[in-house]
Amino acid sequence: MKKKILLITPENEEINRFRKSQFNNFIQITMPYLAAFIDENKYEITLVDEYNQKVPFEEKFNLVAITVNTSNATHCYNISKKFMDKNIKVVMGGPHATLLPEEVKKHCDYIMVGEGEIIWPEFLEDFYKDNVKPEYICEEVPNLKNMPTARRDLIHKRCFTKGAVISSRGCPYNCSYCNLKQIYCEPFRTRPIKEVISEIKTMKSKFFVFWYDNFLPLLKTPVYSKLKEENRLITEDWSYYNGKTRVAFIPKNMRAEELFEGYMWFRREFYSLKSIYKRIRKSKTNILYNLIVNLGYKISLNGTKNNF
Question: Class of 3-173+185-201 per CATH?
Fold first, then answer.
C-alpha cells in the first residue's frame, strides 16, 4: 500500500512578497530534485511551493518533508507544528538543519543532516518499512555522477522559470562570509558536463538564472563569529538573514538603515536608464533581450522596501 508524502518548499510572507515582485523569478529546485529519488510504487507524491501554492493542512499525509533555510526557519517550525499536532510525521532537512541540528530537531520527528543523495533514499526505505530512525547524518561524500533529473513535471504553474539545474556542489574557496563549507561535504565537486547538458536539453524553458546571495554574516562563518563577539549582530531572528529585505548586523561606519539605503541606491543606479543604455551599447548579445531583462529588474525594485 502506498504512503502519501508531501514535499514542501516553504517561504515566509516577507520573502514571498519579494519573490513575486521579481521579473525573472526562479524555482527552488531542492524538492523537485529530491522527488526524483522517491519510488512511486511505494509513495504518492505531492509537491507544494509556497511561492504560488498554499500548504494543504486539511489533507491527510503519512509524511511531510520540509527543506529549511535560515531565513524561513521560524515559518518552517510553524508549518511543522500544525502537521505534528495532527499526528502527521514531519522530516526536516536543508541548510539550516545541517547548521543547527539541535535547534531543528525540536520541531520535527526526523532530521536529515548534510547532503541527501545517500541518506534520503535510506530514510524513505526505512520509513516505508516502519523502521525509521530519528536522525540521518551524511557521513559519505555523494557522487554527482548519474544524478536523477529533477521532477519538473511536479512544479505547479511556473511558465518560464523552471530552468534551474544543479551543476556543482560546495566551493573550492573558504571565504570568511560564506558558510558553504559548513553545509556541504568536502571536496568541491562538479557534475559531468555531458550530464548537465543532457538535463538542460530536457527542459522546455530557455531561461536560466545564476545567483549567489551569501553576502551576509551567515551561521558558522568567521564573519558571523566575529560580529557576535563584537556585539554587532542586530538579531538572531533568522528572518533577517535573507539577503534581500533586511540588514542583520551593525556596520562599522554607518547605521544599518544607511547600509540598506546604500544597497537600494546601488540597485537603482545600476538599473537606471542611463546605466542600462551604457551596458546594452557595449553588449555582444541580443540587444532587445538585454533591454527586456534590465527593464524587468528595474520594475522589480518596487518590490524591495525598507523594513526598519
Answer: alpha beta
Please state, in angstroms and rounded to a whole number, the distance separating the CA atoms of residues 12 and 16.
Answer: 6
Which residues, in sequence order, are CB contacts of 71 under 8 Å at separation 6+? 12, 15, 238, 239, 240, 241, 242, 243
Extract the C-alpha cell encoding 260.
Answer: 540598506
Instruction: Identify the H or E element spanning 261.
Output: helix 256-270
Three-state secondary structure call for residue 284: coil
Q: Which residues make Cβ contacts (< 8 Å) with residue 154, sequence separation at least 6?
A: 32, 35, 45, 47
- For 244, list phi and psi in degrees, rounded to 5: -130, -45
Count the alpha carbons within 13 Å of 270 in the hemisphere toward its beta carbon.
12
Distance between CA atoms of residues 98 and 104, nearest Å = 9
| Mean pLDDT, all residues of the chain | 79
Give CA–CA dist 138/184, Å, rounded. 10
Nearest to 63 by CA among 42, 90, 44: 90
Q: Using the CB atoms, write b or e for 168-199: b if 16+ within 10 Å.
A: ebbbeeeeeebbbbebbbeeebebeeebbeeb
- Choice among 16-25, 140-149, 276-285 with the minimum mean pLDDT: 16-25
**Is 300 within 8 Å of 23 (Cβ atoms)?**
yes
Taking alpha carbons only, the member of 103, 22, 269 closest to residue 111 is 103
* Under 8 Å between Cβ of 42 and 62: no
The grid cell for 69 is 533555510
What is the three-class DSSP state of 211?
coil
Least confident of 127-131, 167-171, 225-229, 286-290: 286-290
